[in-house]
Amino acid sequence: MKSKIVITLLVIFTSLTNITNAHDAHYQDTKPRTWHTKSGDISASFYLAKNNQVLLEKPNGTVISLPLSDLCESDIAFVNQKIQWIQKINQIHQNTIAQQPSNAPMASPLQKGKPFLMFCAILLFIGLAIKFIPYFQPLKFTLPVIAVALFLSTSSFTLKSMKLMGMSTRISFLDSAFSYYKPSISTRSDNNYYYVESTGLPDHETMLGITSWQQQVPIPQCYIGTNAWSIPINPTIAATPVPVNQNHFLRGAIALAVNGIPIFNPYTNTGVDAFLDGQLDQYGGHSGRADDYHYHIAPTVLYNKIPKTSPVAFALDGFAIYGSLEPDGSAQKSLDANHGHYGSDGIYHYHSSATAPYMIGNMVGTVTEDATMQIIPQATAKGVRPALTPLKGATITHCHPYPTGNGFKLTYTLGTDKDTVDYSWTPTGDYTYKFITPTGTTTSNYKGQAICKVTAGTQKNTEYLSAVFVDPNRMIQMLFPQEAQLERNIAIINANGQVVFNTKNRNKQLQIPTDTWRSGIYYIQTHSTNVAGKTHKIILP
After folding, report:
1. What is the DSSP string of 206-244?
2. 509-538: pLDDT as tens digits
3. CA distances from 523 to 317, 326, 481, 520 (A)
């Protein structure tokens, strides 16, 4: 009878092992190609083409823009093939989106329960073997160690997973993602939301390349205080994901980029694809009816400043949005119908793309959509002048900021004419718009709200450690917030309480070799005279 029990458990264990050995399919990487330009050869991957401009992504993640005319004939033919392919994909998406049912949420690996069932079966098998088979009884003293080891292996909890978790809370993960744009943005949190304050103007050029212009221009906004952007700290999976299409979320933002600029539905409030309609600049944004600048696709230009393994944005359901790489730096894995998947940490995230749906196919997290088809809560933009009508045939060629930072000079072509909108504002909110055409200049003055500033005192990230992990070379890697320049005292203590490393650091990154250190648990302590210390635990293999 005892042997039958053991054999039965062995069969269960074997079947569970077979189930959990499946792997996800991977997309193939877009490999860089050599581009022959008038100024020399460039190794880069095609990103997108628009308005006779080609955006190329270098291997280091830098995005560059070139006139199509700078390329050789074979490269121009390659770009045209890509354009035709993208148009076909978008057409297929638009023809089928109305026929797609709402997608039920996928269960994460932990929610599926396979690792847990496997762990229980193995542990039960070993326990009964120890109890009924004398040969295994000496193992009873090591059963706790075996149980821990089995759990780590069945749940795929590895050092790579520890790196993704960052040995930190979700708050510090959000702090790390937004840290690259502080202090121009400010963050804070409560028990429910992570709040982001900004003034609504990005640090990159705007409006350039728009061919279907709404006659709106970017001005400062007051996304401050009670009007800050809100990201759920503890997002939950919705029972039925809501499609991001012409029937949902047509007003307001669906996500927030890490530079504090909102991202809207790819479809405008008139139901057209803003990118395909020529309404967006080369970075995927434009100004709305309140002269509020926002994106309609993920702004991958931000990867010129942030790591390619960092989120470029967060959806307003609370889940992160990445670019073409996974958080651990590996190639992007296959995406589900919602345009995302569960990461190896068991948390869902989205990915951006150059084709529809561009960022989010369906809103996986739980959100509230009001009667006006916008997610609430969210910040509100305020204009200072009546919205104008679209100016057909106008192409924006420049949008230069004033050196003083209080205005822009936007130029555009309309037929054979070259026209200008020269506008500025005062700290108290007095706006002057000058419309300059070959026939003369028209000036309009408006009164708006005083220019806001992000809340003083909250723009600094007081976490001294953004992430800590052990790399494949057994070296401890410590990453610190970019803006934290004050001196930090760093000490590493082993499990016996002995200090094995002690230093002072002001740099963003610190690498600590551990060739002579024993394997086991270590504690990293960071503190300064201004902020209370933090302690992080790592496991050295």
Report:
1. -STT-SSB-S-------B-GGGSEEEESS--EEEEEEE-
2. 888 999 889 888 787 877 765 444 566 777
3. 34, 28, 20, 10
Q: What token pair was written down for 219? A: 């001005």
Mark whether 138 and 242 lie in a shared domain.
no
Which residues on adjacent β-strands are paired with residue 420?
Answer: 411, 436
CA–centroid distance for 42 within its chain = 27
Nearest to 539 by CA among 468, 465, 437: 468
Give the pairing type, strands 253-257 and 313-315.
antiparallel
What is residue 423's predicted lDDT score, i.e. its pLDDT?
97
Q: Domain of residue 215: give its range.
A: 175-447
User: Are residues 390 and 523 both part of a single domain?
Assistant: no
Q: What is the pTM of this model?
A: 0.61
d(CA 14, CA 22): 14
Query: Quick one: 258 and 406 in the same domain?
Result: yes
Mean pLDDT is lowest, of 268-272, 374-378, 444-448, for: 268-272
* Full strand arrangement of the beta sheet holding 193-197: 186-189, 193-197, 229-232
DSSP 272: -
The answer to whether 265 and 374 have CB atoms below 8 angstroms apart is no
Is residue 294 within 8 Å of 263, Cβ to Cβ?
Answer: yes
